[in-house]
Amino acid sequence: MNTHGISSTRRSASIARTVAVAAALTMGLTSFGLVAEAAAEPTTTTPSTSTPSLGSTTDATDEDTGAPADDNAGTIDARGPGQAPGAVYANRDLPRGRMVAGSASGNDFTYWSTGADGKAHLSSGVLMVPAGRAPAGGWPVVAWAHGSRGIADKCAPSERPTKDDTTELSRWLGRGYAVVSTDYAGVGTPGTPQYYDLEATARNIVDAVSAARDVTDNLSRSWAVVGEGQGAAAAITLARLAPKLQPRNSLDFKGAAATSIPAEFGALLANLGPSSASIPSGLAADALYTLSAIRNVNPKLDVDSLLTDTGKKWMAKAANECITEFRKNVDGLAIGSLFAKPVSGNTELTNLLTEATDLPSRGFVKPVLMTQSLQDTSVVVPLSLKYLNEARADRKVQARTYLTLDAAQSAKLSDNDIRAFIAKILK
Question: What CATH architecture applies to the domain 88-263+366-425?
């Protein structure tokens, strides 16, 4: 659904103009009604018996080999016994070497969720619990919704976490929360990733938290989500949909915090074509991961018809390389050289992008904090600020922006605000 109420064609034209003048707009960011501000100091199982296709058994390495399946081997047309969303399929103790600082115990588990196609999919994730005695009612849960890490099985953060992942998990453990992080269905499990679909990603997160409460008996019903990038979009979606998606008798969603907001992402992709200039490496990586995933999961959309031979080679790279290497490789890439035709010419594809990636800007049922650095190179900042300005009209939304000397300072201020917000909603 197009929550912004304008056509894809009109919006793509607007996006083109916005991207072209993004640098010039930096000096006029306050015209969106958002003033950069410093942050205030914070206050302080039993496995299912159903039999799926086997997931990847390849050990994670630093070499980029292998690719996601090009079919839907991990999907089930009709749910069998034990395949309900959130049902645990497999569970094992997390090896000590894979636990992060601040964790007393951990689990590596696989569970059932629902994909963009409405079918049952397996997803994997990790649970870590802090040291000490759980409070009455159990440890409150923070779900970490990570950004793009790659779509190959070897890129699953449960097996190959980035520095950002380990830092974030350790940070929340140190604050007295159990942490749950999903790999998203199709990454490290059978089938093709469908992470580009926000509702499917949101379901993967909810079902991971539900499964985690079956894995251990010391977790609270109360939980919140913290997301960045792709995960930020899913977190925002959860602030609207989680009460509908979660099992009411076992989970109590309290709210969402999101940073690095990928606003108008689908329209940005729809605007790509032979005349496109270079774009920031983080945005380029997300764009190619998304198109590569769609290309694999839905051949009928004929993404290849839009691509040059160079573009097809980059789609293969996107299917194989994890984020750290891929971002380096796409830095400075002439993105227009990948396209033989404008993406906007494929109406079925652009409609899918709009429906799957549009962020809700109203109708939130739980509190949501949105933070955005004005120096963020992973998003088009003017579009993010425009979105924040629209979303904050909803009384459930708080927005914070940061203009600082460097990205590290912005990240610290954002974390301070998010820490205070989570402490308030999970108190």
Answer: 3-Layer(aba) Sandwich (3.40)
